[in-house]
Specification:
repeat, about 45% helix, 6 strands, signal, Prenyltransferase alpha-alpha toroid domain-containing protein, Prenyltrans, two-stranded antiparallel sheet, mainly alpha, transmembrane, Glycosyltransferase
């Protein structure tokens, strides 16, 4: 989910101050000349805000396509884990122990769990991360971006995916108050008549929820207990979702799916950016998220229409944004029943492989090896893509501005 992109950015705004923000948040932000990127890391742009996230997405998408990642790519990701089991967005010196200043977060941790669980050889690492996620579960059963922040749909959705990937039943993972994610997510669904049954995004200052397509996509996926790479096309005729009081997670997912169907139907099968200053700009990442959510909800016709729109229009975005974007498109292609190796004429797997170390094998297509490919300049998620998700922590972001956020766990 677009997540995952990232409350850490808004935290940096508070820390760096507005004067420093433009340089720090440039779309093509490059690491400083004195900072060499790890050879096992996917992407070339500064990994400060999305290193673990983009690496996890890359490895998960490769696994979904039968590609065996480079050992050093997996080692880099496992090496980012703190002793507590949590992951931060990026640790430049992974040999140094995590401490109270290490801002571990639920999104980076959950993304890493989904990737490492899929690879199958990192049970100890996965187990520690799952226990950390359980330890920072909110009383209402959900998760915020950082420990201590209020529950949001994006964070809760990606954690649900991680629990499922690790073999856990999310309904059985309960807070001290006996609440699970399936109790928390329906509380984030908005009014049917006024807001179309969307999952809400909280305003950083007031805490007031407003309808949000990406929060809705994450909420639908989480409410249905699905992960990023676990959605496959559903056969059969889809029924039209009926919006009703979200007494259950299933109904919450139905309401959210209806909202996405309505929103996509009004905008030529794709979502538009809700970022400040982004006028009439398509949101490729959120559209890919919506494809996953709708496919999981059995709305295959619209999922495929939106995936086909992405196949025709997303090439430039993916090239600029890098490995996480290619991975999102792989997930969307698979969910829509399309070929990720011929997605609008593009081989997404080959392009993804070319953003990092050459994989050990690429069983579905020998030509997908990155060994003879020029490395893509895209490093990760577009920084606006990252900032957009930073807002998903909702009223919790206010904690970052006020300085009242709870002390981070190492």
């Amino acid at each position: 989910m677009n997540v995952r992109r990232s409350a850490a950015v808004l935290a940096a705004v508070a820390v760096l101050g507005s004067a420093a923000a433009p340089a720090a948040f440039a779309d093509d932000a490059k690491p400083s000349p004195s900072t060499a990127l790890p050879s096992g890391l996917y992407g070339k742009t500064d990994p400060k805000f999305d290193g673990v996230f983009r690496q996890s997405y890359a490895l998960l998408a490769q696994d979904a396509e039968g590609v065996e990642p480079a050992a050093k790519a997996v080692d880099w990701l496992t090496g980012q884990q703190c002793a507590s089991g949590g992951f931060a967005a990026y640790r430049a010196d992974a040999s140094a122990p995590c401490n109270s200043k290490t801002t571990v977060d639920s999104n980076s941790t959950a993304a890493a769990v989904q990737a490492l669980a899929a690879l199958g050889n990192e049970k100890k690492t996965v187990g520690k991360s799952v226990e950390w996620l359980k330890s920072v579960q909110n009383k209402d059963g959900g998760w915020g971006y950082n420990p201590g922040l209020p529950t949001d749909a994006n964070s809760t959705g990606i954690v649900v995916g991680a629990l499922v990937a690790a073999g856990e039943n999310p309904a059985d993972v309960k807070s001290k108050d006996g609440k699970s994610a399936f109790d928390a997510l329906p509380k984030l669904v908005m009014d049917c008549d006024k807001d179309g049954g969307a999952f809400g995004l909280a305003d950083p200052k007031s805490g007031k929820l407003s309808p949000n397509a990406d929060a809705t996509a994450a909420g639908v996926l989480g409410s249905l207990g699905r992960g990023l790479a676990s959605v496959s096309p559903k056969k059969g005729e889809a029924t039209s979702p009926k919006c009703a009081k979200p007494d259950t997670a299933t109904q919450a997912a139905s309401n959210g799916a209806g909202y996405l169907l309505d929103t996509l139907g009004k905008s030529d099968d794709h979502l538009m950016s809700a970022m400040p200053g982004a006028k009439d700009q398509p949101d490729f990442g959120n559209t890919a998220d919506a494809v996953l959510a709708l496919a999981a909800a059995g709305q295959q016709d619209q999922a495929k229409k939106s995936a086909e729109w992405l196949a025709k229009n997303s090439a430039d975005w993916a090239k600029q944004s890098g490995p996480a974007a290619y991975a999102q498109l792989v997930f969307a292609a698979n969910a829509a029943g399309m070929d990720a190796r011929d997605f609008g004429g593009a081989d997404l797997v080959k392009q993804l492989n070319a953003t990092g170390p050459a994989p050990q094998s690429a069983s579905k297509s020998p030509s997908a090896s990155a060994s003879d490919e020029k490395k893509d300049d895209g490093g990760g998620v577009s920084i606006w893509w990252i900032i957009g998700v930073g807002m998903v922590a909702g009223i919790g972001i206010g904690f970052l501005y006020s300085g009242n956020r709870k002390k981070q766990q190492p």
